[in-house]
Amino acid sequence: MARYNVLYFCTACRRIHPMGVSLPLEVGFLNTQTVSEAYSGKPLPSYVAMLVGSSVTCRETGKSFILEDINKLYLTPVLEPLSRDSKRA
Ligand SMILES: [Zn+2]
Asked: Is the terminal CB of the chain with fewer CB neighbours within 10 Å at N or C?
């Protein structure tokens, strides 16, 4: 199992921001992929599908909006050791 951070394409500033959510994935990959690419040919787990429709706030502009498009969600490998995961600021 590899862990991936979820990133979203921000419609407010047209950049990619981290959602602060990470997901375990059975199939590993090293480059950032869209969620639909990462799960191609596989059923989308409900906790991934649920990310669509959630509200996010842009760090740059402070605007919030609803994530509507699964193709604008990305996964990028978590490179830090897992022990750091439990440490929260
Ligand atoms: Zn933004």
From this structure: C
